[in-house]
C-alpha cells in the first residue's frame, strides 16, 4: 500500500463532499437552530454594546431598524424555517432538504447577515440592496423546499405554513425597501405587522404541539383539544393582522384593538385549558406554557395600548417578541434538538435557568421601563437574554453537530 502523503492536495470536490456529509447538514433544524442561537447571542451582544456606548454605529440603516430586522427576520425567521422543514418530514414522510442544498441555503442566510456591514463608498446603499437580494433568495429557497415536500405528499392541512412564510418574505422585502427610501415610520409598522404574523404562526404550532407535549410529558391518558377555539383563532388572527396593517400603512382611523383583544382572550382561554399543575415539574413544558401565556397577555396589552398612553405599544410588543417568540424558540430548539437526535428529554438545571432568564428578560423589557427607566431596563433585559442563549449554545452545539445517539440518520 502506498504511504499517505499529507502534502498532496485534496480535490475541491472531494473536500466539499466530505463537508456536506457532516451531521450538521443532515436536517434543517441542525444548522438553523445553531445559526439562530448564534445570531441571538451575537446580535444582542452588539446591540448591548451600542446601548452602553461601547460600540459606534456607522451604517446607513439606523441601529434600531437593523436590530428589529435581525431579531425578527433573521433570528425568528431562520428558526421557524428550520422547525418547519424538519417537522414537514415527519408530517409528510417526504425527505427534507439536506446536504449541499441545505449548506447552500445556510450560506445565503449567513451572507445576508454579513452584507449589512459591507460598505461601498461609491455605491450608496449597496449593502441594503445586497441584503434584499440575499434575504429574498433565502426565503424563496426555503419556501420552495417546504412546498416541494407538502405538495408531493398533498399535505393540504399544512399549506397554511407556505402562506405564512410567503407573507413574511413579502414583509421582509417591503421593510428593507422602505428603509432604502428613508420611510422609517412605515418600515417600523411593517416589522410590527411581522411580529403579529409570527404570533399567528406560534398560535398554530402551539395548538398542535402543546397539548401533545403536555400529555406525553405528564403521562396523561388524553390530550386537551380545543378545535373550535383553534379555528376561531386562525380567522380572527388573520383579521386582526389585516386591520393592524391597514391602520398603520393606509387608514389610521381604523382600530384593530377590539379584534386583537378577542384574539388575546382566546389565547388566554386556551392557555388555561391546557394548563396542568404538574407542568411546573418539567422545564421543557413550563417554558412552553409560560411563553404561550405571554402571547395572550402581550396581545391584551397591545389592545389596551390603543386606548391608553400608560401602556406603551412597543413595551407591550416586546412581551411577545421576547417572552413568546424568544422563549418559545429557546424551549422548542432545545426539545427538538434532543428529540431529533435520539436523546432523552431531560435537560440540565442550567437550561432551566436559561428559560427563566428569558422570561425575566421579557418582563424587564416590557414592564420595568415604566419603573426604572427605558435605557436601564433595555440593558438588563439584553444581558439576561445573552446569558440565556450562551447557556443554550453551550448545551446544544455538541448535540446539533454530532450524529444521533441511536445511529439513525437525521
- Helix share of residues? over 70%
- Rg, alpha carbons: 21 Å
Distance separating the two termini: 35 Å
Shape: globular
Largest sheet: none
Beta strands, count = 0
Poorly predicted runs: none
Number of helices: 14
Query: What is the averaged pLDDT score?
Result: 93
Structural class: mainly alpha
Order of helices and strands: HHHHHHHHHHHHHH
Q: Any overview of this molecule?
A:
By secondary structure, the chain is mainly α. It has helices spanning 12-20, 29-51, 63-92, 99-115, 126-153, 159-180, 184-217, 227-249, 257-274, 283-305, 313-339, 349-366, 369-372, 374-401. It has 14 helices and no strands. Helix 3 (63-92) runs parallel beside helix 5. It is globular.
Write the layout of secondary structure elements.
Blueprint: H1 12-20, H2 29-51, H3 63-92, H4 99-115, H5 126-153, H6 159-180, H7 184-217, H8 227-249, H9 257-274, H10 283-305, H11 313-339, H12 349-366, H13 369-372, H14 374-401
Helix pairs in contact: 2-3, 2-11, 2-14, 3-5, 3-6, 3-7, 3-11, 4-5, 5-6, 6-7, 7-8, 7-10, 7-11, 8-9, 9-10, 10-11, 10-12, 11-12, 11-14, 12-14
